[in-house]
Amino acid sequence: MSTKVIELKSAPSLGKLYAKAVASSRGRRGKGGLPDVKVVRKGVKVDPSALADYDHVCGYTLREQLPATYLHNLVFPLQVTLFTQGKYPYPLVGSVHLDNTLTVHRPVTMDETLDLSTWATNARPHKSGVQVDVVSQVHVGDELVWEGLATYLYRGQRIDGDVPPRPEEDEAPDGPGIIWRLPGDLGRQFSTVSGDVNPIHMHPLSAKAMGFPSAIVHGMWSQAAMLAAIDNRLPDAYVATMSFRKPVLIPGTTRLVAHQGGQDGSWELALRNHRKGTELVRGQVRPIS
């Protein structure tokens, strides 16, 4: 059976896609397995104005090289398009972004023409439901220049198999760091530059309706801001992994701790609640030789 390819001619409206996803969530019962579907968009050119707005919200300096997280920003509408397909078995409403890994094979510049693609794979058990990997790629011509691996948790869903044990981890870095005072409208700021209008990020009341005590920051803002803080010290090729451990509530105050060590120049990162010290996001950056 061949893969079904859905080719987008332009960037879809995420607001409309979210409305479609919400309307169809109750009918998605986790049955039938992941569809063999790939969503693609070819010939994409970066809008310098949109990039500048994104850089401003996330803390990047505008330059020719695209932030790794901005490439995720470009493929995210493809992911949501995938989630709204009739045979996609899991509901977008209530899903949780657990981890996000970005692989930069080489710097990508804002004047290059990009081909984007996304598909879902590897549905497997989680103690709270089912987790699925969403793979995204960016090509320049025939060259693979960037990859994304986003792991989503669909709470309350079930799939056959055993829940794997959680691997042992070293302590995340702690100590002095960069203090960020996050405003209550940060979710709305990031939604403007990303198109991600998930209600949990937009307003305290809509977040409370989804079970959160207040609005929470987008995980992709956290990853972007953490990488932006060390952007001038990143190599040309690297793998950046972020694990979103606890919601980053807004308004709030956080502390970014970044330690560089090892012969390869790897980074260990942690975003913590500044007052309590609670680990909110854990990150690693590994150079590709």
UniProtKB/TrEMBL annotation:
Residues 188-262 form the MaoC-like domain. GO terms for cellular component: fatty acid synthase complex. GO terms for biological process: fatty acid biosynthetic process. InterPro entries: Fatty_acid_synthase, HotDog_dom_sf, MaoC-like_dom. SUPFAM superfamilies: Thioesterase/thiol ester dehydrase-isomerase (SSF54637). GO terms for molecular function: fatty acid synthase activity. It holds the Pfam family MaoC_dehydratas. Transmembrane segments: none annotated. Signal peptide: none annotated. Belongs to the enoyl-CoA hydratase/isomerase family. This is MaoC-like domain-containing protein.
